[in-house]
Model the fold of this input.
Amino acid sequence: MKGLASSFFMSGKMKTTEAKAKELRPFVEKIITRAKSSSQADQRIISSLLGDRVARKVAEEAKKFSGRAGGYTRVIKLGERKSDSAKMAIIELVK
Done:
């Protein structure tokens, strides 16, 4: 989950299976909520989870959501993948 979240924060948008997107959403929302508080303890927790480079990116994104109480991500369902019929989705940050 940490690797998926790291790549999500670096791009801001990700195409993945619907199941992974639904699992990733609460993890990402909690991280953004922690980043909004900007306390040193929360910054260290985020940095230990995702790494320093990604933590800086999360801090930048969290500033955009300062007036928002929640719902930082959106999951858009796409349909089935041809090869194995897995349901696909796009998860992205709401702007």
Notes: The chain has four helices and three strands. Helices lie at 2-11, 18-37, 40-50, 52-64.
